[in-house]
Specification:
This protein has 287 residues and is an alpha/beta fold. It is built from 9 helices and 10 strands. The strands form 2 sheets. An 8-stranded parallel sheet has the order 8-7-6-5-4-3-10-9. α1 crosses α2, α2 runs parallel beside α3 and α8 packs parallel to α9. The radius of gyration is 17 Å and the shape is globular.
């Protein structure tokens, strides 16, 4: 059953209400090699147009990324990542000053450039592994998503193993929340993500989803990103990530029913409809 505890997630100048309804974060990949939509929106104009379309479809947050972290991907240098993402962030905010934009990066240098361009959130798949990341976030008052990833994108799906996936992921996130606090980031600026698909097998992903409410005891907004992931392709027999909409909808509905605060998705129009129905059933919320 979905929880109804409301939290304010402070992200720069924005205060995002989490808990009363499921928020939708739209994915804006500015990359040639992302697993699902690589190359489709890798120019600034196309990416800005795509992001604004997502907002018109109901996205609450736009997450702009310039480095693919799909399994087997190679890293991108900071200069290239900045060149890909900063013009898109500026273009989005030039079009709509009220937008909430996140930068999907694990590099402090990229985060700083994106925050200077107007981004309000750093979505870090490495949970602050870059020694300079927490300072960059603390300096600006930005929000931050701390995600669990086992290993590096290049090798993370090479037979990942855990003694207890829930306890290990939960313990890692708790430790990173404490580290962020010690670095000067107030808890009200943090959210957590158990990292579905990042160094997890099919069964690990399913166990995380079954136990997703376990992460609520960190008393922070919980974000989940099941969209078009490989485990959905395995379960539905769909090789093309773009054909995984129905499977994604099932995972997103489950997340909404079980109190996840934010879902990160590719198919915004469809998933907004999914969470509207799920929220009406589970939380009595109609919008």
């Amino acid at each position: 059953m979905a929880r109804m505890t409301e939290k304010l997630w402070r992200c720069g100048a924005h205060q995002i209400s989490c808990g009363s309804r499921t928020l939708v974060m739209g994915i804006v990949n500015v990359t040639p090699d992302s697993f699902s939509d690589g190359g489709l929106f890798d120019g600034p104009d196309a990416a800005v147009k795509h992001g604004l379309q997502m907002v018109s479809e109901g996205a609450d947050i736009l997450d702009v990324g310039g480095e693919s972290t799909r399994p087997g991907s190679n890293p991108v240098n900071a200069a290239e990542e900045i060149a890909r993402t900063v013009p898109v962030i500026r273009g989005l905010l030039d079009s709509r000053r009220d937008l909430i934009v996140s930068i999907d990066t694990r590099k402090a240098e990229v985060a700083s450039a994106a925050l200077a361009a107007g981004a309000a959130i750093v979505n870090d798949v490495s949970a602050g592994a870059d020694p300079a990341m927490f300072a960059a976030v603390a300096l600006t008052g930005a929000g931050m998503v701390l995600m669990h990833m086992k290993g590096e994108p290049k090798t993370m799906q090479d037979d990942p193993s855990y003694d207890d996936v829930i306890e290990e992921v939960h313990g890692f996130l708790r430790e990173r929340v404490e580290a962020a606090a010690l670095a000067g980031i107030d808890a009200s600026r943090l959210a957590v993500d158990p990292g579905i698909g990042f160094g997890k097998s099919l069964e690990h992903n399913l166990e995380i989803l079954r136990s997703i409410e376990r992460f609520a005891d960190l008393s922070l907004p919980v974000l989940a990103g099941p969209s078009r992931k490989r485990f959905i392709g395995t379960l539905t027999g769909t090789d093309d990530p773009a054909d995984r909409t129905e499977g994604t909808a099932a995972a997103v509905a489950w997340c909404a029913f079980h109190g996840v605060d934010i879902v990160r998705v590719h198919d915004v129009a469809q998933m907004v409809k999914v969470v509207r129905v799920a929220d009406a059933i589970a939380r009595g919320i109609r919008r």
